[in-house]
């Protein structure tokens, strides 16, 4: 948890944008403005959060997608990380993912690791020759 | 049709020798194509025969909506042990349909979710995901499919090995290996005797991609070390095997195959070798399956045609 401001105080525009952006980065995926407002501890009005998010959108620092009647916001720099988290969720939810996606390598059996190290060690020495 | 209706249910056993020998003696491309074709033919025939048995089985059920002629003695006499066989065939066919449906459904769901997970990213062929879990997958679909790989896996590979990894995944996409894999999975669901073929094809498809990658990067050793390193770095989940029966798993076998000479491109093995006999045996089994199920289907059609006034 980050330190939530306990009472409202005056902050500069840049500071507010950074606060909103960092709150968004803590989200496990796209977040709504209401979520961001809650996360920031109630020091900001909902409309203020929307204003800041819109300004961040103009700057290209966040992106948004429609989720029902409101928007879900995502930090733009984090698109790849978000995709990685989503993909992990897909893969973890699939009990035998090998059956669906062809993996580069499959798991190793009890003796496989030793065998593999032997084979690779052999290659390395051949490579050194 | 007599006993012919049962043959396609057990003829998959004739493919077991080739499922075992193919990976050692055939080019992985030939092995994948041959085993998939045999598995698909045998699965279709086995399912047709299960359907025919089910027709006999449902005709015995009281209150079935079928025309009365279907439960005539002639229909029932067409199948040996009609009472038992018919009764078993109904749940068996139901199980096959459910299992295949479930496989297809899970397949498309995972496929859809994986594509959705990557939706926010630029439409590049290779997607690098910042993740500490090392993995790489070929994700078919769209115009040419995408290759996804995590930073954790890339960071443990040398440049040549990275090229080998990308070449391997691209080979999966270019050769459409996912179609072979889904075909043998469905076949294994349709008839459990086809499971060794599924295991064999999932291995030979990897070998096929390995060989393609070795050709693309011009180094068998780079592919071998890429596979070895990737397996060692992602060894978090060991495959549960009985310790006493622990034959070398697929990864060491792939690495060993790559460290050996390239397989010859010959498409069909000579007859008088063990692998040649096994291949011909499986082909004969598939042909016998096809003929038995065709024979059974035609006789059933004529019997029903004669029995019902339709």
UniProtKB/TrEMBL annotation, chain A:
InterPro entries found in the cross-reference section: BlaI_family, WH-like_DNA-bd_sf, WH_DNA-bd_sf
Family assignment from sequence similarity: Belongs to the BlaI transcriptional regulatory family.
This protein's record includes keyword DNA-binding: yes
Pfam family for this entry, one: Penicillinase_R
Keywords: DNA-binding, Transcription, Transcription regulation
An MF annotation (GO) of this entry: DNA binding
One of the protein's GO biological processes: negative regulation of DNA-templated transcription
Protein name per its UniProtKB record: CopY family transcriptional regulator
UniProtKB/TrEMBL annotation, chain B:
InterPro entries noted in UniProt: Beta-lactam_resp_regulator (IPR052173), Peptidase_M48 (IPR001915)
GO annotation, biological process: proteolysis
TM spans (from-to): 6-22, 34-56, 88-105
UniProt KW keywords: Hydrolase, Membrane, Metal-binding, Metalloprotease, Protease, Transmembrane, Transmembrane helix, Zinc
Cofactor requirement: Zn(2+)
Recorded superkingdom: Bacteria
GO molecular function, one term: metalloendopeptidase activity
UniProt record similarity statement: Belongs to the peptidase M48 family.
Protein name (database record): Membrane protein
Lineage summary: Bacteria, Bacillati, Actinomycetota, Actinomycetes, Kitasatosporales
